[in-house]
Amino acid sequence: MKTHLILFPILMPLGGAVIAMLLRHRPRLQVRWTFATLLVSLAMSASLLWTVWQQGVPLVFEGGGWAAPFGIAVVGDLLGLLLVVMSQTVLLSGVLYAWGSRDQVVRYPTFYPLFLMLTTGLTGAMLTGDLFNLYVFAELLVISGTVLTAVSDDKYGTEAAYKYFYISLLAAAFMLLAIGSLYVSYGTLNMADLGQRIAADGSQPLLPVAIALLLAAFMIKSAVFPFHFWQPDFHTAAPTAVSAMLSSVVVKLGVYGFLRMTTLLFVAQAETIQTVLLVVGVIGVVFGGLSAIGTHNVKRMLAYSTLAQIGFILVGIGWGTALSIAAALVFAVNHSLIKAAMLMLAGAVASRAPVKTAAFAAITGLGKYLPGMGVLFFLGSLALAGIPPTNGFISKLLLFQSGIAAAEWGVLALIGVSSVLTLVYTMRAFRRIWWQAPDAEVKVKASGDRLLAPILLLGLVVLLGVWAEPLVSLAQATTEWLLSPAAYVAAVLGG
User: What average pLDDT score do residues 38-44 get?
Assistant: First the structure.
């Protein structure tokens, strides 16, 4: 099905950013416009996802009327639209959190336009059918995230932004070299056409180089071990409304890339790629969990937690079965909701401290004045650890079921033991903030960041824990689509 409506989720935040910039002298109207823009964009994305799911045919727009592979295609298949709906849901909650935040940065006239540009970059990257355009949208995402971090209230924001920018510059170089290698070898960058040509001729000498470079680029995007080192500093210093987005949905761009690599672009080479992802995934689960235990800052702890949680997702992709890929998709969606909510709660606690910081030294014992926030943090901790009745339990249950079905006993044992680490570091944080007595009398600020956004996200966490069937069914339908690359090729190229 060919339709221009698939452009709407990209153009709405892009056009909204321009108008938001024109409203820079009217801050209240600007934030309301940003929220309304994302709300309408999310509604359209959800409608398009439902249409594609029910009809079983992706939406394809051919730029300039030129048929692919000569024109630039925008493709709304189940994978792209599922991740767009996931991302825009969390991004909408990020605007809501920023609206009620005490951070000075959210009052800068460029904050909300940049937030909408970040949304444009992430959405466009997941809907484009062209590998070079994926690079362009990814760079738009990097520039927006870098500036949003550089203007942080935290004194280390500029340093963190430099780290993020330069490591992203390395990822950009890897991706450009991979794109050049593929174009020289196959004469196309349309992903459907490229997948078809690589399947017909996998003997090109630059193909292994391109695969390795793309793997490295997407690993950097998702902060996968051993390319994770920039993430803890970055997320600790970024404004809460920004770090909650970057650590929950922006890192899923790499997950999207791995899925496209193994199910569309390099199907014949997928087994080797999946082995690499499985190894780094297991290492990430163990290393991320152990590192989170030893941190001194709640945001930093949650940044290392992302390394571990992405590791679980990579294990699912690495096993490569229909059940494990569906489990990885459910895990990706559920983790996005949980991690955004937990980072918002960390920011809300920090906003009530005498000096706004998420360091344990400043917020130990602060929780006795914030009992309601403690209930929310405890619920989020259960979800992150995979305990019912939360969606985190559904994620790990599906992943472990897929491991049992694939008889991956060694990997199951490793990630099973490492799963306990999540409960250890989240409960350690909960105990220090809500149960441990402070070293001295703590003076809590009368007000801080509002909790509406994390409350709504945690509501979804519980809802998808007790009523998981729709998301699981959608993930299974998406997996069935992914494992039939000929259907994607036919939809984009015809035939």
Answer: 96
